[in-house]
Design a protein that fits this description.
The structure is a homodimer.
Chain A: H1 5-12, H2 16-23, H3 31-43, H4 50-57, E1 62-67, H5 73-88, E2 92-97, H6 102-114, E3 119-123, H7 131-137, E4 144-148, E5 157-161, H8 163-176, E6 182-186, H9 196-207, H10 213-216, E7 217-219, E8 224-225, E9 231-232, H11 235-248, E10 254-257, H12 260-272, E11 282-286, E12 300-303, H13 306-322, E13 329-333, E14 336-338
Parallel strand pairs in A: 1-2, 1-3, 3-4, 4-5, 5-13, 6-7, 6-10, 10-11, 11-12
Antiparallel strand pairs in A: 8-9, 12-14
Helix pairs in contact in A: 1-2, 1-3, 2-3, 5-13, 8-9, 11-12
Chain A binds a DNA duplex through helix 2 and helix 4.
Amino acid sequence: MATTIYDIARELDVSHSTVSRALRDNPTVASATRRRIKEQALKMRYKPNLLARGLVNGKTQMIGFLTGSIYLEMVSAAAMVASNALRKAGYDMQITATEGRFKPTQHCANDLVARGVDGLIVRGVFPNITAEQMQEHFQFPAPTVFTSAVQLPFPCRQVCHDEAAGVTEIMEHLYGLGHRHIYMLSGLWEGWKKYPVFQGFYKNTAKYNLGNAREKIHKAPESFFDENGRRIYDTEVLTVWIKKFLQSHPDCTAIFCTSPKIALMLLSILPRLGVRVPEDISVVSSGDITGASCSHPQLSVVSLPLGKMMRTAVELLLDGIENDDNKPAKVIMPTKFIIRQSTEKVRSKARIKLKN
Amino acid sequence: MATTIYDIARELDVSHSTVSRALRDNPTVASATRRRIKEQALKMRYKPNLLARGLVNGKTQMIGFLTGSIYLEMVSAAAMVASNALRKAGYDMQITATEGRFKPTQHCANDLVARGVDGLIVRGVFPNITAEQMQEHFQFPAPTVFTSAVQLPFPCRQVCHDEAAGVTEIMEHLYGLGHRHIYMLSGLWEGWKKYPVFQGFYKNTAKYNLGNAREKIHKAPESFFDENGRRIYDTEVLTVWIKKFLQSHPDCTAIFCTSPKIALMLLSILPRLGVRVPEDISVVSSGDITGASCSHPQLSVVSLPLGKMMRTAVELLLDGIENDDNKPAKVIMPTKFIIRQSTEKVRSKARIKLKN
DNA sequence: TTGTACGCGTTATCAG
DNA sequence: CTGATAACGCGTACAA
């Protein structure tokens, strides 16, 4: 059994409440006894039971970080930032990854709350969870901040990045390079048609008169989890897919991927099909993972202000906790377009031709 | 305030203990009342207070996952596997990332225990924490399983992968391709000289008579965290570093990286220095991150059995929890060498020459 | 079948 | 300055 304040009290022949006070530097207890108690506590390796403390205080100094997956580089990076920022403010953060499905997500969220977290950071939107479901089921008694690429269509505290603006930059860039046949390769799940990427794509396709946006958006093959817990896009499958795609869309001169991972794979697959990047086709992506700067060619991307977002989220959260409210607030952060080498002037040939 | 069993009891004019029993399907309570109570609980959106439950039960159904960083792809993947395995067994898992330094790590570990976790998975060894410190400070009252590349030099439950064997495979492979000047580029911190990678490298360098191993091992430039929480190896710095290295070691025909990320960067830097991979220099790494299969050329790697390791760790942990013991156990898992395209027959020229 | 009373380890309020 | 005593919400002997 772990030692409790009672053990210390008994040993020193004082009451447990004196021990409790002494341990938290309450000045009402004589400095002499205070010292004695602290020494004894140290000697007995006393560690306060945080469950008990949380129960009586109604506060746990613990923040929950809820996310569908911790596997994505950008998610884990975000978690680190949030964790460090919170630690500075005296809070611990516990990450809970839920696989993105509704049931586990809700379960974990409830658990977090039931475990008495003082606040909640909900990262991302979840596959197969609609906005309506989020609104209905993601109302927690503890202050909550949502962070994602999506402006949630209900009042809540949230900080998101302006992905649509990023898309605008991309389209502007590509258009300036002469591209008129720009396709979007989406790895995103259904049910969130309102994704700003889509909106941005629609808007700009219209603005530059690039044809029917709906026909330009294509869904990438599903990814899956391998036995090592890694989310994998099967290379073979993607190869077949992109081959078919280019055969039926030979006018394509630029591909905009919503996932940098898919973009990176494209960079490696296309040359094998006899398609050069960027000479034949330009590739660009949303999301700046580190691999993007050592790919061949280096990938042009929309960089997301993850660090700022998470620090802001933490600020919002702490504010909510201090003032014991949960009043809606929306912060939208600008993205930054990083031009590297995967985007170039449009090719002269109208149609692309694959090897053999 | 959240609703408690007392609230339900009052509403239904029964005692709170009846409610407590009913809610956990205790057959001693009349099925009629049981239904009434459950309905009422649902209606009042009752959620059990897990702090209180944990306090009285001495069990929380919660496992802590302690790691220096969650940022590495392999760590987050491992976390997902463990989390899912634990969930199946009825446990929740909370991840705590500590930045790898001693103080926060110890703090977080104590916190986890103080919060009443039923068990602990400690992933990796920690920068700047020696084996002695680990032995002294990582003795927790709750069952603990360590997972890492290192066999901890003290009795504990642990599952590690046999990295040395992986190195052996690499060296065998390279030697077979004619390489006699194999260098190791290590991204690992000091203080853990006992890393099996080193041992494996020493052993095989001796075995194949490849010269003084100590002179073959070189430390890569330090990485740092950028504002977005990503661990970055600065490309410029690494470029300068590798340039200098090759100038002073022109005999080098193969580089073995302990970090796949560095290897990937090398793949992109070397060509810019006029060095072709694998024609001029072979590159190989320990750790199979997904980017390794879409690099140019694809990277030969030692693949770690992360999934199996984590599932085994979970098994060990659950065993420890069930039997309420913490008796030492050591599981060592074999790695798998994946030959891709970054390793080839040794070049004919004795010395490498950089562009300009 | 149900209710009473107590304990889990803290903190907080009151007397003294 | 210190010590009873009462919460916090839940589980559970024990009694009814």
